[in-house]
Amino acid sequence: MLLFPALQKLGAAPHDSHWYVLSLNLKAKRFEVLDSLHEEDSPSLIEHATRYMNAIKKAWLIAYKDSHKQIQDYELVYIDVLKQENGIDCGFFTLMFLELWNGKNNPAFTHDQVPALKKILTLRWLNHTHNKCKQWSHHLFGNNS
Q: Which intervals hold domain Ubiquitin-like protease family profile (predicted)?
């Protein structure tokens, strides 16, 4: 399974955009959309996801033309996932879908868990071995930490 974060422009302003996930599920032989904002019948989502899917299909033909696994006939399927309760959490939901989507089971988290999960993700990033700023607590909290 290949997971692609997708950024959809919704308007002219720089912040008028929305993140969602496009999954290439090779086992299920389909593309899947996981979107925390739009419903299945959203014309803008369908149009954007279809363009993204077609670009992936085109790249696949070039990169894997001799492969026995071809994706040209795969269709786009909407996965009904938890919806965000505001207009700004799409990035967080996208990260959760990228981490939790296994191609079968709906990513399991609730609205009540979102604040704690945001803290957990932040701490994971701050303490990650690739974070070159080892003194992050000093930068966040000053000299008293």
A: 1-101
